[in-house]
Amino acid sequence: MTPDQLAKFSEIRRLLAEGYRIHAEQDDGIHMPSDGLCEVGYPTAYSDEEGCGGIEAHALMIYSYVLGPSRKHHFFKGRGWGDCSTFYSDDPFATALRQVQSWLAEQAARLCE
Q1: Residue 110 pLDDT more than 90?
Q2: Across-strand partners of 73?
Q3: Would you say 99 and 84 are in contact if contact means Cβ atoms under 8 Å apart?
Q4: Which of 6, 19, 64, 112 to pair with 98, CA 20 to 30 A apart?
């Protein structure tokens, strides 16, 4: 993981923790034991010129039943067909960070209703 990815990943984890804390205090308490699970993916030995030697992560998965629109949310480097739980971009960590920020904004809006 590059230093930039690590900084974004740390912020994602911090925001997820904040969202789950707010959920526990305000909502019905329903949650899944895997909420907040994150998996970082690296390219295979055959998918790029660096093989297994590169430090740049190419994928991130966030499991978030409580905050997101789906249970598993996948963020991949590159191009592809996305939907509400699968995203492709040149910077999957930045895309994931924006999505988690939007989940917390939606959570805050629900609490203000």
Answers
A1: no
A2: 62
A3: no
A4: 112
